[in-house]
Design goal:
By secondary structure, the protein is mainly beta. Helix content is 9%, strand content 16%. The relative contact order is 0.13. This is DUF2382 domain-containing protein.
Length: 305
């Protein structure tokens, strides 16, 4: 059942359903009413190639908002729900499959569901178990969908047994912070060569020739020696080494880039919503569920990874 105070089938029909994260689920095709109370219990969303099949989703915890109808179940869970032919009827296996899929209690018999459009049908062997505990049931093994147009007063919380008595059974939901990781580009690294000029000083040995006078005495009677007195000049060529500078380019090293992965710890924080359970005590008092009080003192749950 929806959490609004009053919603008729006309209010729900043709609305667009969204999940708690705001993801669009689809357009509501039919509204399913409890045959005994006339309250909306489920809605079906047309799926399939030509809309011949429908995905059922409970109205438990659903809210009307500006976009349409926000249901309490995520889009992927609704899309994975057992599919039902639009013009068929449910057998026992299909009925129980819906209960198991949404983790709801099975039907207890006595009530049945009827669609807000389509042909009339007969009540089956099983019906809804209540808006809170079972969030309504989709007929029994022989239940068929039949037309009906009824308005309902919303009643969030209490379930209803086959004899019409309330038996408090409620599903509490809360948001969990799920943190994932994605990899993206943060920058570019490049290798670049530039030419710089520097002074280099080195020392090498340099040789040159110098002149010195060497005198040797001539022995008496030595032949081939002229004793004529005259002027004479002789020339000696001197040699010296000069430094010659030549430059050549040689390969000295190979340079490349490598990446290393560095892991660091980063704290993530965000706000999450959760439902708290309150109940009215006899005498007009109101109390909060013990588990909710413990969760509040404990600060709730951390993010899921």
């Amino acid at each position: 059942m929806t959490e609004d105070a009053y919603l008729s089938t006309r209010d729900l029909r043709d609305l667009t359903a969204y999940d708690p994260d705001g993801e669009k689920v689809g357009k509501i095709s039919q509204v399913w009413l409890d045959d005994r109370s006339g309250r909306p219990e489920w809605v079906s969303i047309s799926t399939g190639l030509f809309g011949t099949k429908e995905s059922f989703v409970p109205l438990l915890g659903a809210r009307r908002n500006e976009q349409g109808l926000q249901v309490a179940y995520r889009k992927d869970l609704v899309k994975e729900a057992p599919r039902v032919e639009a013009d068929g009827h449910l057998d026992q296996d299909e009925e129980q499959a819906l209960y198991r899929h949404y983790s709801l209690h099975g039907s207890k018999g006595g009530d049945s569901l009827r669609s807000d459009k389509g042909t009339a049908g007969t009540a089956g062997t099983a019906g809804t178990a209540g808006t809170a505990g079972a969030a309504g049931a989709v007929g029994g093994a022989a239940s068929q969908r039949r037309t009906g147009d009824a308005s309902t007063s919303g009643m969030a919380g209490a379930g209803r047994s086959a004899d019409g008595m309330e038996h408090g059974d409620m599903i509490r939901s809360e948001e969990r912070l799920r943190v994932g990781k994605t990899e993206s580009e943060v920058g570019h690294a490049r290798l670049r060569k530039v030419v710089v000029t520097e002074n280099v000083t080195t020392t090498i040995p340099i040789s040159h020739e110098e002149v010195r006078v060497v005198r040797e005495p001539i022995r008496e009677g030595e032949t081939g020696v002229s004793a004529r007195i005259h002027e004479e000049e002789r020339e000696v060529i001197l040699h010296a080494e000069r430094p010659v500078v030549r430059k050549e380019a040689v390969a000295v090293e190979r340079v490349h880039l490598e990446t290393d992965k560095v892991t660091e710890q980063q704290e993530i924080s965000d706000t999450v919503r959760k439902e708290q359970i309150e109940f009215d005590e006899p005498g007009g008092g109101r109390s909060q569920d013990r588990q909710d009080r413990q969760d509040r003192r404990g600060g709730g749950r951390g993010p899921s990874h």
